[in-house]
């Protein structure tokens, strides 16, 4: 089986739950993408404004925990909530910092029904990484994971 890392950012816990489920299914290591605690706000709308400004100004938040050596993995699954039709902004620097990784990358996300441009933006942020199909929500996980493995 491919050695897999599940790397995720979660603001209110849903994506974390999905990440844990996936990590169990494929026996993966986990890495929690974290930024400084004062980066966002407790309020969803304020957080949305902060993230939107970060994207507009190309000022993405720094990660506060070290990324593991990704070269040991065949596959990295990157989890995020959808924020205004895009990945959460901490995902940007994670993808930026693993640009030399030569394995496969795929994203999963949780949302409230309007993911809009999530996948397109994820691919844009992924730069030269080798990106496989994205997956939404907790249903159909096994089929998606089988597709990635195939
Ligand atoms: C700042 C912010 C922006 C959001 N924007 C969207 C959106 O554009 N589309 C959508 O479907 N859900 C949106 N949501 C809802 C989240 O994607 C959803 O609740 C997600 O499952 C939360 O994951 P988490 O608990 O891991 O943070 C937004 C939530 C927040 C906090």
UniProtKB/TrEMBL annotation:
MF terms in GO: FMN binding; oxidoreductase activity, acting on NAD(P)H
A Pfam entry, by short name: Flavodoxin_4
Ranges for domain Flavodoxin-like: 4-150
Descriptive protein name: Flavodoxin
Organism: Limosilactobacillus albertensis
